[in-house]
Structure formats: C-alpha cells, structure tokens
Design a protein that fits this description.
Elements lengths: L1 H9 L3 H6 L48 H10 L3 H14 L34 H19 L2 E5 L4 H6 L14 E5 L5 H15 L6 E4 L5 E4 L4 E3 L3 H4 L11 H4 L44
Parallel strand pairs: 3-5
Antiparallel strand pairs: 1-2, 2-4, 3-4
Helix pairs in contact: 5-7
C-alpha cells in the first residue's frame, strides 16, 4: 500500500506534493538581457552635469593649521591665550570696529609661518592695537562697500617672522597696521584694482591708508601713510602708483613684469587707551607696509 501511495505521489505533480507537505525546489526566472539605449542619429547623448568650482581665493595662502580648526587648536594649546584674545576683541568692540572682520582671522601671521618655524596665530602687542583700529575703519568704510566681504590672510608679524617671510624692512605688518586680504565675491584682478583705487584716490589720504597689490587677488591695506603700489598697466594710467623715495623700505620691490601674481606672545596683555577716531586729527604714523612678496 505504501508503495502505491508513493508512486501516485511521484506522478501527481506539484499540487499533490504540497498537499502532503513535501517541499519542491524553487526556480528563478532568467535575468532579462541588457539592452543598451539607442540614441537616434543626430542627437547627442546626455552628459553628466559639471559642478562649478568653489570660489575660494584664500586657499593658496591658508594651509592646515592656519585655518579655523587650526585656530581652535592654537587657542586651546595654552590656557592664557583665551584671556589675550578676549582683551584684544574687547578693545576692537570698544572702538567700534569689532566684527568688521572675524577677530580670529586678524591673528593670522605670515603665509610662510611653517617654513619660518613660527606660530600660525599671534596676538599683537597691545601698544600696536590702535593701528589695527584705524586700518579696520578704512576696510569697513571703503573696502567692503566697494568689493564686498573680504578675508584676512596675513596680519601681524613679529620682527623675526617678518624678516623670514621676506617682508619689507619697515613693514606695517610689524606694527599691526597692515592686513593682506582677498575678496570673497568673484571678481577679476583689473576690476578689483579699479574699484579699490578709485576709493583710495578719494578717501585714502584722510585715513593715512596704504594700498598695494600682489599676485592674483591678494591686496594690502594699512593705515601708516597714504601711498599706493604695484598697479597693473591696465589701470596705471587712471590709478598711478604713489610712492616716494622714502617709502621704498615700507613696500619692498615691485612685482616682476608679467607677474600676476615666532616667539609666542606673553601671557599678560594690558589694553591701551582707546584709539582716536578716523575723523579726528591724527599724528603721522611710522612708515611700514608689506613687501612685494605675498606673505
């Protein structure tokens, strides 16, 4: 009897097998063959959309360690730096230039800080802070309104770092008066020069503002003396250089033709007296500015 039942099960098909609980092997349908899309003649197949490059003119000058994460590491590496930075920031706020540029960027030293074995950031001596106030007033009143937001890439350099970085002997960077910066909105070099030169011709003397240009879009502003250098030929006729023989040591050598191109601060900082306002008479400041080397 069992033999007859098994024989009938073998010939009964899948339905009968399932009825008595016997599992049948499952089979998968074969995969569909790949068919390449046919592009009609005369039509160009769609291409991937190119992602435009990010505008970041500060990138050539800011290395790891001098960026914002680097600043945070520097800030936390010594417990007394917090008090230094706060005192400096409070002084800028008291003189109504706080926030013109992020305070931490105003502590950047030289682009070549690593090669010189220096600090990427440094709080300047408090005796020099009034110079920075005057420079920030000019940046606030005429640079940012003309070319939009800017980023500081090199500000204070102590004398040893300035010499190593190739700065001019009487560089305004040593006085915490100079800011090398780049525009954060897309602009070409000639347009940048025209805009900044126009305002400088009209208003620079009132601020003792120095204006210089380096390779690409990097430019320099200080508040030590009214002068101007490294104009491109395309704008030199309408915005000629203003450099006297006594100014040479403060600006260094001009850019070559065709170029488009430290000790840690002490823990104690005492804030100086508030700086004079830009509209009030100010005594002539010492000469000094960045050299033609883009540091």
């Amino acid at each position: 009897m069992k033999l007859i039942a098994l024989t009938s099960l073998l010939f009964a098909g899948p339905a009968a097998a399932q009825a008595v609980g016997v599992a049948m092997p499952m089979t998968m349908p074969p995969p569909a063959p790949f068919v390449r899309p046919v592009v009609p003649m005369g039509m160009v197949p769609p291409q991937p959309v190119a992602t435009p490059g990010v505008w970041n003119p500060a990138a050539p000058y800011i290395t790891a360690g001098q960026d914002e994460p680097g600043y945070k590491s520097w800030y936390l590496a010594a417990p007394w730096r917090a008090a230094q930075v706060k005192t400096f920031n409070d002084y800028l706020v008291a003189n109504q230039v706080g926030g013109v540029l992020p305070t931490w960027t105003l502590l950047r030293t030289a682009t070549s800080w690593q090669e010189c074995g220096a600090q990427p950031f440094e709080v300047p001596p408090s005796s020099e802070w009034p110079h920075m106030v005057e420079t920030l007033r000019y940046v606030r009143d005429y640079v940012i309104p003309s070319v939009g937001p800017v980023e500081a890439v090199s500000v204070y350099r102590n004398p040893q770092l300035n010499q190593c970085a190739g700065g001019a002997p009487e560089s305004a960077h040593k006085l915490d008066s100079a800011i090398d910066m780049v525009p954060l909105r897309p602009i070409d070099r000639v347009t940048l020069m025209r805009k900044l030169c126009g305002d400088h011709s009209q208003h620079g003397a009132m601020y003792n503002a120095g204006l210089g240009f380096y390779a690409y879009l990097r430019f320099h502003v200080d508040s030590t003396k009214f002068r101007r250098w490294n104009m491109d030929p395309a704008v030199a006729a309408e915005c000629p250089p203003i450099v006297h023989p006594e100014d040479i040591a403060s600006i260094g050598q001009p850019l070559p033709v065709g170029a488009v191109a430290a000790p840690a601060a002490s823990p104690t900082v005492n804030a100086p007296a508030p700086a004079t306002t830009a509209s009030s008479p100010t005594p002539a400041a010492p000469e000094g500015s960045a050299g033609s080397h883009p540091q």
